[in-house]
């Protein structure tokens, strides 16, 4: 009898604890639509959190205005980027990026949650996620499944824009998270870091950077749910390709976007250090032939 009562009290406590602690990130890096919906109900949401919708270019703001997650702010993932002979999107200038984010009411103390409206929600969002880490913030979260999953769960959308007071965002460039062409050439020689190619397997099989392993971007999502595959499955995929998460990893793809999604997955699985080769195959294939 006593043990039954104790069990009941314990269960009640758990229930109360669960309702108080609405902040339920699946992981520091990943949040589900359901948990984000709960998070939005917090009184301190505006003070401590910012939710960001992102896309490639200023035009994405039109879709955003037609209906977005409540309280979200639109951020252009290509802000202060341009194309060059070797790259589709250059890395922004730290001061310019910081000023841009600050002007939108995002500070470097806010906990940031990013989403986009691509098929799996991991296109522009993982690019911006990478840029934010490259400029100093290591705990930015992505909405699993993006806007598609949010809509599939029938959570509310709004056309109302939220504006926030200007804030200070100090972006500090972290060179350890970026690899340049010359460094990649060095890595091929020394084998000190592990290159991981995010392009599809047939493309990789045709040609790739010497020594690179392959984890195709297209295989990291569950086609049925539209969400990222479970950590267990992802880990199996990564380990079966011979990737050692304790070594320094360098991801690349065609133009540097899918490489950010792969970096996200590797970080989610606990990789120690994952850098991105921004020039990717686009630059490597041109310069290695010179
Ligand atoms: C990025 O910002 C810097 C500093 O403000 C500026 O000099 C540069 O022209 C900008 N680049 C692009 C592509 O907008
Ligand atoms: C990659 O980014 C760095 C830092 O902005 C830049 O110096 C380098 O030129 C970029 N690579 C390419 C291929 O543009
Ligand atoms: C350097 C930086 O911007 N850090 C911030 C990253 O986000 C966390 C919250 O998740 C903040 O506490 C940090 O200040």
UniProtKB/TrEMBL annotation:
Which PROSITE patterns does this entry report, sorted A to Z?
RHODANESE_3 (PS50206)
CDD domains in alphabetical order:
TST_Repeat_1, TST_Repeat_2
| Signal sequence coordinates | 1-21
Identify one Gene Ontology CC term for this UniProt entry: mitochondrion
Q: Which SMART domains would you find in this protein's record?
A: RHOD (SM00450)
Keyword Transferase in annotation: yes
Q: Which residue range or ranges hold the Rhodanese domain?
A: 58-159, 189-289
Organism domain of life: Eukaryota
Sorted alphabetically, the keyword list is: Repeat, Signal, Transferase
GO molecular-function terms, A-Z: thiosulfate-cyanide sulfurtransferase activity
InterPro entries assigned: Rhodanese-like_dom, Rhodanese-like_dom_sf, TST/MPST-like
Q: What is this protein called?
A: Rhodanese domain-containing protein
């Amino acid at each position: 009898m006593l043990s039954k009562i104790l069990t009941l009290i314990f269960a009640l406590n758990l229930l109360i604890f669960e309702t108080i602690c609405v902040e339920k990130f699946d992981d520091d890096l990943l949040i589900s639509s359901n948990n984000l919906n709960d998070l939005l109900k917090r009184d301190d949401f505006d003070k401590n959190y910012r939710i960001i919708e992102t896309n490639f270019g200023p035009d994405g703001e039109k879709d955003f205005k037609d209906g977005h997650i409540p309280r979200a702010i639109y951020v252009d993932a290509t802000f202060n980027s341009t194309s060059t002979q070797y790259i589709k999107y250059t890395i922004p200038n730290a001061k310019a990026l910081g000023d841009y984010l600050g002007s939108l009411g995002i500070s470097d103390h806010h906990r940031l949650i990013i989403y986009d409206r691509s098929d799996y929600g991991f296109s522009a969002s993982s690019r911006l996620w990478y840029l934010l880490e490259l400029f100093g913030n290591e705990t930015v979260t992505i909405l699993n499944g993006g806007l598609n999953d949010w809509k599939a769960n029938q959570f509310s959308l709004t056309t109302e824009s939220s504006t926030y007071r200007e804030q200070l965002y100090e972006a500090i460039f972290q060179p350890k998270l970026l690899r340049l062409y010359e460094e990649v050439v060095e890595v091929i020689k020394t084998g000190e870091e592990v290159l991981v190619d995010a392009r599809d397997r047939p493309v990789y099989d045709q040609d790739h950077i010497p020594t690179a392993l392959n984890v195709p971007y297209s295989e990291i999502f569950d086609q049925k749910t539209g969400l990222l595959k479970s950590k267990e499955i992802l880990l199996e995929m990564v380990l079966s390709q011979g990737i050692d998460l304790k070594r320094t990893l360098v991801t690349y793809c065609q133009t540097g976007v899918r490489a950010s999604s792969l970096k996200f997955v590797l970080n989610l699985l606990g990789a120690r250090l994952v850098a991105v080769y921004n020039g990717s195959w686009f630059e490597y294939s041109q310069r290695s032939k010179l």
